[in-house]
Each structure stands twice: as C-alpha cells, then as structure tokens.
Amino acid sequence: ILNVEQSPQSLHVQEGDSTNFTCSFPSSNFYALHWYRWETAKSPEALFVMTLNGDEKKKGRISATLNTKEGYSYLYIKGSQPEDSATYLCAREGDSSYKLIFGSGTRLLVRP
Amino acid sequence: DAMVIQNPRYQVTQFGKPVTLSCSQTLNHNVMYWYQQKSSQAPKLLFHYYDKDFNNEADTPDNFQSRRPNTSFCFLDIRSPGLGDAAMYLCATSRDRTGPNEKLFFGSGTQLSVL
C-alpha cells in the first residue's frame, strides 16, 4: 500500500447500530496514525493519535485500534447516534515528521 | 472560542483573478499548514510554516504562495486561479511539528469557487 486508504467511502446506518471502518496505510517508516472527525460546516477535530502497535484508544462510544505491522487501523462506533454523522479522516505520519498523509475519509450518516 | 479561524467561509473568484484566503489562530502555535481538498479526495498538504520558516511541498504549483506576517496570521495567495483550483482550503496549526502527542487544530475551511 502506497497511500492511505479508507473504506468504505460512505456508510449509512440506523440509530443504535454499531459500526466500524478501516484505514490502511504503508507500514514502513511508521510514526503515528491520526483520526479526525469532520462534521459538515465545522472544523475537523482530532479524535485519536496512536503510535504503538496494538494501541487501543477510547473516547466515549468511539474507539480505535492500531496494527502497525500490517498497516491498518479500525475505528469503532458503538450505538451510533445522529450526532455521529460526519466524515472520519485518518492520516499517517511517517518519514517526514511534519507531514500527515490523509485518506479520503469515510462519510457516515446515522439515520434517526 | 474559535481557535483557528478562516475567512471567508465561501469565496468566489473569476478565472485568473488573484484571490487571498486568510487564517488566524489564538493558540500561539508554532506551525501553520495549508491543505487543499478537492471533492471526495484526501486533503493534500500545500505548504507549512514552522515559525517563520516556509516549507513548500514539491508538487505545490507555483501559482500558490503563502505569507505569515506574524505568529497569528497566515495567508494563502492564489495568483491566477484556474478552474482546477476550486476546492476546500483548510488551515491547520500544531504546537510543534507533528509528533506522537501532537495533533492538528483545523479551521472550518474556505470553499473556493472559480468561475
């Protein structure tokens, strides 16, 4: 994998459903993996920054895992709510310490 | 409470007419970034400032310039916008260059249309 790839591109779920999506990235020269949530008409906000293989982080109903050896991260949302509707961006920090390489995002819509 | 502020929210310009987008921050962060995001694509870094030190990405077109007159403000100048420059432009800051505990703080973006 040369780029940061996110799947699925979009996702529609019903309120109360749990969901997850994937970020795949080059595993070589890995430094950190970021997750951001971007609600429409607002600023992207950082959810997690993870660095270690096997890292798991949690913020309320949202959690993320990291596998640096195989180059992927999962984001989980338990019991989705309409306010979770947003685009979720992941970004890899690698060779150049200042530079985040973003994926194109997963757009989540939670129906009431 | 807004910490990274971008103006305007929407900008319409004409083909070839210079346009400037602005970004300000109240966080006193050392690093400021400009990202370009075209529809449904990944945000792409154009350049960043580490304090006053300007760093251009190799594939950023010459048409794009930036100024950082002080810690708080950063401007993106597009000298001769083309139709392909229509995009969302995101400004972001970080306390230092990204590291294991650093994260980016974003503005809400300026959506640029080129007619």
Keywords:
heterodimer; A: 112 residues; mainly beta; six-stranded mixed β-sheet; five-stranded antiparallel β-sheet; 11 strands; 0% helix; globular; B: 115 residues; four-stranded antiparallel β-sheet
Class by helix and strand content of chain A?
mainly beta
Number of helices of chain A: 0
> Strand-residue fraction of chain A?
over 45%
Strand content of chain B: over 45%
Query: How far do the termini of chain A sit from each other?
Result: 36 Å
What is the overall silhouette of chain B? globular
* Secondary structure tally: strands of chain A: 11
Helix content of chain A: under 10%
Low-confidence stretches of chain B: none
Fraction of residues in helix of chain B: under 10%
Described by the principal axes of the CA atoms, the overall outline of chain A is globular
Rg measurement of chain B, Å = 13 Å
* Tally of DSSP β-strands of chain B: 11
User: Which radius of gyration of chain A do the C-alpha atoms yield?
Assistant: 13 Å
Task: Provide a short characterization of the protein structure.
The complex is a heterodimer of chains A (112) and B (115). Chain A is mostly beta strands.
Written account of the structure:
The complex is a heterodimer of chains A (112) and B (115). With 112 residues, chain A is mainly β. Chain A is built from no helices and eleven strands. In chain A, strand 9 (86-93) and strand 10 form a beta hairpin. Chain B starts with a strand and ends with a strand. Chain B has strands spanning 4-7, 10-13, 19-25, 31-37, 44-50, 53-56, 64-67, 73-78, 87-94, 105-106, 110-114. In chain B, a hairpin with a 2-residue loop joins strand 5 and strand 6 (53-56). Classes of the chains: A mainly beta (112), B mainly beta (115). Chains A and B meet through strand 4, strand 5 and strand 10 of A and strand 5 and strand 10 of B.
